[in-house]
């Protein structure tokens, strides 16, 4: 059964508040050599078959899994 | 500058409520051939240098980025 990994990130120019908070927290824990932190979502989907799988993944991402206005995504099929 | 990608997932046996909700929503949108959905976090960190980078990533993950009781993680350094 094909396993799909989807990585969702905020688009460039969208403020990543969670990333900024983690960056600050890392700094106060003494990790001074981190320049940037970005936070996204990681989805793993198991499909029953790989019929039209690329097309289905793209539609799912646009309809439900991501917010195309503020988010980008990439995916891998294994 | 090294870029680190960290993938955080729930440990086996921990109920993935968000994954279950997305699975159900996909079903009601007509995507019937998805068997399982798991939701995790995806973090991108930019480091200034790669001194002790593996050790630092592991410590950060245990201290702040993940909850080791319920979450697992893997990472890649680019």
Describe the structure.
- The structure is a homodimer of 78-residue chains.
- Chain A contains 2 helices and 3 strands; from the N terminus they run E-H-E-H-E.
- Chain A is α+β, with helices and mostly antiparallel strands and 78 residues long.
- The first copy, chain A, has one domain (3-77): Phosphoribosylformylglycinamidine synthase subunit PurS (Mth169, Chain: A, 2-Layer Sandwich).
- A 3-stranded antiparallel sheet of chain A has the order 2-1-3.
- Chain A starts with a strand and ends with a strand.
- The interface between A and B is medium-sized, with 32 and 32 residues.
Outline of this structure?
2 copies of one chain form a homodimer. With 78 residues, the first copy, chain A, is α+β, with helices and mostly antiparallel strands. Chain A has 2 helices and 3 strands, in the order βαβαβ.
- Spell out the helices and strands of chain A N to C: EHEHE
The main β sheet of chain A shows up as: 3 strands, antiparallel
* Oligomeric state as shown: homodimer
Number of helices of chain A: 2
Count of the separate structural domains of chain A: 1
User: Percentage of helical residues of chain A?
Assistant: 25-40%
Spatially, the strands of the biggest sheet of chain A line up as 2-1-3
CATH superfamily of chain A: Phosphoribosylformylglycinamidine synthase subunit PurS
**Given the helix and strand composition of chain A, which structural class is it?**
alpha+beta
For the termini of chain A, the CA-CA separation is 9 Å
CATH class of chain A: Alpha Beta
Low-confidence sequence ranges of chain A? none
Silhouette of chain A: elongated
Global mean pLDDT of chain A: 96
Strand content of chain A: 35-45%
| Number of E-state strands of chain A | 3
Q: What is the alpha-carbon Rg of chain A in Å?
A: 16 Å
């Amino acid at each position: 059964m094909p396993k799909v990994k989807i990585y969702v990130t905020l688009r460039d120019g969208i403020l990543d508040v969670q990333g900024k908070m983690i960056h600050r927290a890392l700094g106060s824990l003494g990790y001074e050599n981190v320049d940037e932190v970005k936070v996204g979502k990681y989805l793993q989907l198991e499909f029953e078959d790989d019929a039209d799988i690329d097309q289905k993944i793209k539609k799912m991402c646009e309809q439900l899994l991501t917010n195309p206005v503020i988010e980008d995504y990439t995916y891998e099929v294994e």
